[in-house]
Amino acid sequence: MQTELSCTPLHTAHEALGARMVPFAGWSMPVQYTGVIEEHRAVRTRAGLFDLSHMGEFEVRGEQAVAFLNHALTNDASRLAMGQAQYTLIPYTDGTLVDDAILYRLPGRYLLVVNASNIDKDLEWLQHQLLGFPDVELTDKSAETALVALQGPLSEQVLAPLTDADLSNLEYYYALDTRVCGAPALLARTGYTGEDGFEVFVSPEDASAVWDGLLEAGRPVGLMPVGLAARDTLRLEAKMALYGHEISDQTNPIEAGLGWAVKLDKGDFVGREALEREKKLGPARKLVGFELKDRGVPRAEQSLYKDGEHIGFVTSGTHSPTLGKAIGLGYVPARYAAPGTEIQVMIRDKAARALVVKTPFYKREKGVAK
Predict the structure, then answer these.
(1) How far apart are CA 52 and CA 9, in angstroms?
(2) Which candidate in 219, 252, 308, 314 could, as Cys together with 302 as Cys, close a disulfide (CB 3.0–4.6 Å)?
(3) Which of 328, 326, 282 is nearest to 303 (CA)?
């Protein structure tokens, strides 16, 4: 039986723009408008606009909010200044991952933004962690929240005339309550592309006005609407993990290179014992980046080899529009994780030569954003 797909408040707008719509995490989402490469390059050189209204948003309130968040998440919520955001992870007791998320400290509340495909699972798991925190109120705000992301080096130029906020004072990974295109909004300087940019949280009723306003303001500088396909190539170039690929309930953050988001010194938390042991002993395998030296494009789940021995698998791969070469991420034994190590990727039953390289593959020039 086919399950009916959910639609974001911008579904009609995407169709009017000629987007190719595909099922994604139970939603009908735009995978591309004019083309992946064109949309990708628009974000890298100018600006792009994304509909992320399928994402999940949980609100956490109460006097024990910080204690609860520090129990249920890997990062340290007590370190957040007002308005600040942090990347964090939701661990199982064995150290593997329920999800990854962004946590915002806001006046009177915390906002946890989670992946669309994991909303129900995350909520159920976090509700189980509420035992012992009777003062905490955990509320799913996903259905009441639309999210639009404006990304790229010209994002501030596009957004500045449309908001009451002083963007020159909004630092990277900070957020504030303001107005965008006349609508009440939570405006964050965050993103999933490796570029400077903003994420705008508004009510579903205001989503179209904000989307249309940003598109119109950005048109003179070449802003383009961007679909899921280019979002994936952008985040891969920046080595940003995707749940179900680089991280999952079969991986832990230490082997995924996300140990920096695990604060073992904050006290006890879910999965701490397992993660402390993994960090002390060192992971048996590591997530690495690689470039193909032969023709072909690596794809998720393809096998990785070293001198004829099967050593791991690809988690994500693409032909990088920015670098002009085929790149990928994958897990290999720790002894093969050093940059310069030669490995092979099995593509269509043929071994293609690859080289482990330093990541991220792409890093924007410093000084663009604070």
Answers:
(1) 10
(2) 314
(3) 328
CATH class label, 284-370: mainly beta
pLDDT digits over 110-144, tens only? 999 999 999 999 999 999 999 999 999 999 999 99
Report the b/e string of 43-53 with b at 16+ CB within 10 A: bbebbbbbbbb
Distance linking the first and last C-alpha atoms of the chain: 49
Other Cβ atoms less than 10 A from the Cβ of 341: the count is 16
Query: Phi, psi (5° rounding) for residue 250?
Result: -115, 5
Closest C-alpha among 201, 247, 260, 238 to residue 79: 260
Tokens read off for 174: 């900070």
Show Cβ contacts of residue 194 under 8 Å, excluding neighbours closer than 6 positions: 234, 235, 237, 238, 240, 360, 362, 363, 364
Give dist(CA 286, CA 246) in Å, integer: 10
Q: What CATH class has 6-53+145-237?
A: alpha beta
Q: Is pLDDT of 168 > 50?
A: yes
pTM: 0.96
**CATH T-level topology, domain 56-140:** Alpha-Beta Plaits (3.30.70)
Distance CA 120, CA 66 (A): 22
Q: Which residues contact 4 (CB under 8 A, 6 or more apart)?
A: none
